[in-house]
């Protein structure tokens, strides 16, 4: 069944990720919003606290690009952000605040490979970044709304574990901040977390074979947050706003193997750690002030080769370009490995991404550049793989008449 197209969509049937609706602040959402489109058609119509109905656009995302939809919140409250692919497309959704921090992330919680994030947002501007899970071209709807408004997706489907979406503290194992616990889902899947003073917290559930799902409930049993597939198939919930004192319930469900141990950790929210994790995944570019390791390659004059032993955490390089042209960056696995490449300009805007090229597991970026500094990250697609990768950097200049 084809979903109805909103009024905002009627004025622009396809919102291409590379074409901004209006000039944006280059640093909005850590650079992710520079080419974003207002979901309501313009900024004034994109405040989901006051709109009569949901706001929505349909986006065509090509290759390894992403669509970024912009919206604002004028009143603190609970909101729903969703993405649903057409023709079986598998969407991945990240919601960033104006500083670029991810406040919600989801892959499949909308059901049928759609994404759905229901979260508490404070007043401000937000970016909803939508991409295809496997990098293939994708046409999808992106919708932002209040919780009381019509949803785009069917919602969270019952996983293979058969969880009922509730949290019974009578069977919960207590969590201690900073102390991981590991249990198979079949023997323990409910945990309690006591907070004595207001505190911002982070929760993780890790084991990709289990493909865990995390859900957090407040002391009254009300749903607070949910996540599936934050880092690979692992899950994470970041409650950046301090939670009131009380006993919280943490439910773990799964899509995978019920017999393997799932490591559950609760710890105090650390904004600096969140940022470092973004750099390690290549989801944001690090600063060039020496606070995060970036190897400077100097001027990219013609051709440069670099070998690196890399795992699931990105290794970063920077290089200088003094005149416009074309830059080619290639990552070639030397034996085992599946390298991923991502490239940013010096303002933190992603200008290139590639995983598999020309039927192989190697990666290739071809990016038109202007004079400036560029950063390139290379990592293994599989967090459990470590292997040598040969990097090739080449610069081409336009032909002169």
From TrEMBL:
Task: Give the domain of life.
Answer: Bacteria
Q: Which keywords does the record carry?
A: Signal
Where does the secretion signal sit in this chain?
A: 1-23
Please state what the protein is called.
ABC transporter substrate-binding protein
Source organism per UniProt = Octadecabacter dasysiphoniae
Q: What is the lineage of its organism?
A: Bacteria, Pseudomonadati, Pseudomonadota, Alphaproteobacteria, Rhodobacterales
């Amino acid at each position: 069944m084809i979903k109805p197209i909103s009024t905002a969509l009627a004025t622009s049937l396809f919102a291409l990720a590379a074409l901004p609706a209006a000039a944006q602040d280059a640093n909005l959402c850590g650079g992710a919003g520079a080419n974003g489109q207002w979901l309501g058609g313009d900024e004034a119509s994109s405040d989901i606290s006051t709109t009569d109905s949901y706001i929505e656009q349909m986006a065509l995302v090509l290759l390894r690009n992403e669509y970024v939809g912009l919206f604002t919140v004028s009143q603190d409250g609970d909101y729903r952000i969703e993405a649903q692919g057409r023709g079986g497309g598998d969407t991945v959704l990240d919601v960033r605040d104006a500083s670029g921090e991810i406040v919600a992330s989801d892959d499949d919680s909308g059901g049928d490979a759609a994404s759905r994030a229901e979260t508490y947002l404070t007043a401000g501007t937000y970016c909803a970044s939508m991409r295809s899970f496997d990098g293939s071209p994708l046409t999808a709807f992106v919708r932002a709304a209040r919780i009381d408004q019509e949803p785009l997706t069917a919602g969270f489907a019952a996983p293979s574990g058969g969880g009922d979406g509730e949290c019974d503290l009578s069977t919960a194992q207590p969590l201690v901040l900073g102390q991981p616990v590991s249990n198979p889902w079949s023997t323990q899947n409910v945990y309690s977390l006591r907070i004595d003073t207001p505190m911002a917290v982070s929760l993780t559930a890790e084991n990709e074979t289990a493909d865990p799902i995390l859900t957090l409930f407040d002391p009254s049993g009300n749903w607070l947050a949910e996540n599936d597939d934050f880092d690979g198939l692992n899950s994470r919930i970041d409650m950046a706003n301090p939670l009131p004192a009380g006993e919280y319930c943490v439910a773990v469900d799964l899509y995978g193997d019920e017999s393997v141990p799932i490591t559950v950790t609760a710890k105090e929210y650390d904004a600096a750690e969140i940022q470092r994790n973004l750099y390690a995944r290549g989801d944001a570019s690090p600063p060039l002030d020496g606070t995060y390791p970036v190897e400077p390659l100097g001027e990219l004059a013609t051709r440069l080769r670099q070998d690196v032993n890399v795992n699931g955490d990105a290794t970063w390089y920077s290089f200088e370009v003094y005149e416009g042209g074309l830059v080619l960056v290639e990552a070639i696995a030397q034996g085992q490995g599946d390298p991923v490449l991502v490239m940013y300009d010096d303002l933190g805007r992603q200008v290139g991404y590639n995983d598999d090229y020309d039927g192989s597991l190697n990666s290739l970026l071809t990016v038109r550049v202007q004079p400036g500094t560029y950063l390139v990250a290379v990592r293994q697609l599989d967090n459990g793989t470590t292997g040598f990768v040969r990097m090739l950097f080449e610069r081409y200049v336009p032909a002169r008449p």
